[in-house]
Amino acid sequence: xxxxxxxxxxxxxxxxxxxxxxxxxxxxxxxxxxxxxxxxxxxxxxxxxxxxxxxxxxxxxxxxxxxxxxxxxxxxxxxxxxxxxxxxxxxxxxxxxxxxxxxxxxxxxxxxxxxxxxxxxxxxxxxxxxxxxxxxxxxxxxxxxxxxxxxxxxxxxxxxxxxxxxxxxxxxxxxxxxxxxxxxxxxxxxxxxx
Length: 194
Description:
Elements lengths: L2 E4 L7 E2 L2 E2 L1 H17 L4 E5 L10 H17 L3 E4 L6 H5 L10 E3 L9 E6 L2 E8 L4 H7 L10 H10 L9 E5 L20
Parallel strand pairs: 1-4, 4-5, 5-6, 8-9
Antiparallel strand pairs: 2-3, 7-8
Helix pairs in contact: 1-2, 4-5
């Protein structure tokens, strides 16, 4: 089984007020070309689809066109929200692509999100973990609030709730920033740690 993984598209991003949409359109076209040329069985988009929680109309249109091209290829595509995305906005595409192999993670909830991908005789379980914070996980699991104080706690708890597929591979799609230790690492201006 061949999977293609990408993340951090940041559609709609501008550098010094110069839009990157033409470059991003070319990058998305290249992604589809790579998938086709290499007979990819499924694609994973692991968050930060957009550069902002409320993307521009041009960024939305670019993503819509990309999704329509993915749908034409009939290749399964798995998409989650990152820290730059609004998870509700990403999941709203579900209704428009309901009859296609494109799957969108919903905002994090106490209901585990996964899909069993079957290619020939192979099966793999794809688990969705959109960007989460300790507060989001505590809201969904109030009875475990005291156990969830750090990002690591939140991710570990969320993962413990995922039903693993036995005797087959399990793949986690996540967009998280986790460190152990006391020092915060360097970060760029575009990173949001909340």
